[in-house]
């Protein structure tokens, strides 16, 4: 268990953050993932890698979190606080360090079903087939969502930024 946490813990927090856009919630979700893995480790069949298995649990926990009332209340509270005192969100400062502010801004604005395929494909480097397994969609659906996400991004980014994204 300790080995799994050491090897995949940081990755799972980052993956959760890309879904929920909140570091504290992402850390909580990663902890819940390891608790679930500990309780049901005998059900892990080794048909997929441990990373893929834990990623699947993380994605499901993120979706549960995003559907929860707690999350909706937090989002509304954050929205109100940004109106009163606008500040820079942690994900924006993280992206600025990488020099890709506008691209990351636009990716984070995408609807979840498009954002997740972009993140899993380009940033986490999962294959179309692996993404389909993780989000429980067939490969054609993943390809369609990926294409639509890129179309949405193309509309939002200027030509120079778009070409840079496509060549990564």
Structure description:
The chain is an all-alpha fold. The protein has two domains: about 90 residues, Rna Polymerase Sigma Factor, Chain: A; about 70 residues, Arc Repressor Mutant, subunit A, CATH 1.10.10. Helix 1 crosses helix 2, helix 1 packs across helix 3 and helix 2 packs across helix 3. The chain starts with a helix and ends with a helix. GO terms for molecular function: DNA binding; sigma factor activity. This is RNA polymerase subunit sigma-70.
Name the descriptors.
RNA_pol_sigma_r3/r4-like, mainly alpha, 168 residues, single chain, transcription regulation, globular, Arc Repressor Mutant, subunit A, 0% strand, Rna Polymerase Sigma Factor, Chain: A, transcription, 2 domains
Along the chain, the helix and strand elements come as HHHHHHHHHH
Q: Strand share of the residues? A: under 5%
Distance between the termini: 35 Å
**CATH structural architecture of the largest domain:** Orthogonal Bundle
The tally of helices reads 10
């Amino acid at each position: 268990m300790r080995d799994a946490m050491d090897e995949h813990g940081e990755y799972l927090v980052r993956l959760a953050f890309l879904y929920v856009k909140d570091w504290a919630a992402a850390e909580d979700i990663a902890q819940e993932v390891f608790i679930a893995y500990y309780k049901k480790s005998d059900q892990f069949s080794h048909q997929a890698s441990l990373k893929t298995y834990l990623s699947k649990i993380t994605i499901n926990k993120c979706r549960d979190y995003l559907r929860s009332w707690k999350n909706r209340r937090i989002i509304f509270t954050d929205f109100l606080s940004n109106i009163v005192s606008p500040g820079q969100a942690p994900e924006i400062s993280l992206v600025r360090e990488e020099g890709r502010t506008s691209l990351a801004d636009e990716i984070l604005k995408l609807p979840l079903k498009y954002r997740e395929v972009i993140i899993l494909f380009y940033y986490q480097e999962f294959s179309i087939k692996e993404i389909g397994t993780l989000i429980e969609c067939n490969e054609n659906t993943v390809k369609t969502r990926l294409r639509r996400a890129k179309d949405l991004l193309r509309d939002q980014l200027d030509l120079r930024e778009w070409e840079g994204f496509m060549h990564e």
